[in-house]
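User: Sequence in, structure out. Go.
Assistant: Echoing your sequence, followed by the structure tokens.
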Amino acid sequence: MSHDGADVFYSLAACLAEPFFLLYVLHTPRGEAEAGRYQSPELSRDDLRRFLTRFDTLLVADARFDLWVHSPQSNATVVWDRHDLVYAYGPLGDYERVLRARGFVEGGPDVPSPHVHHYRAECDNDARALLSAFRWIHSPLRPGDEQ
């Protein structure tokens, strides 16, 4: 993984026990699929790393989705949202150690206001490929998912 966003997301998910489930919340499609929640099958740590590496450019450059990783065994979830913010629920001490080792310090997020979201045409092929990466289980968006 070459971009900080995917690398940080993976490093937090790596604090959790396998197997993982991804939830790809496609709230602003550009023709690649129907808006909705796409849940992956069970994934190993290696599967998750391969997915994040393969789709790194889309994940860091485009705001059409939110991405969640959940570990049922750890009862924990890490969420990377359209604003490029990461929310981590579960082993907070482990997350804090990982983030501090990466140079993060305590503080609040800085989301400019007003701000824009980019839905890039050059990411459309990767968005289609992402939805072909697994046998996703599709469900409708929930009210909190919609823009």
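User: And one key feature?
Assistant: The mean pLDDT is 89.
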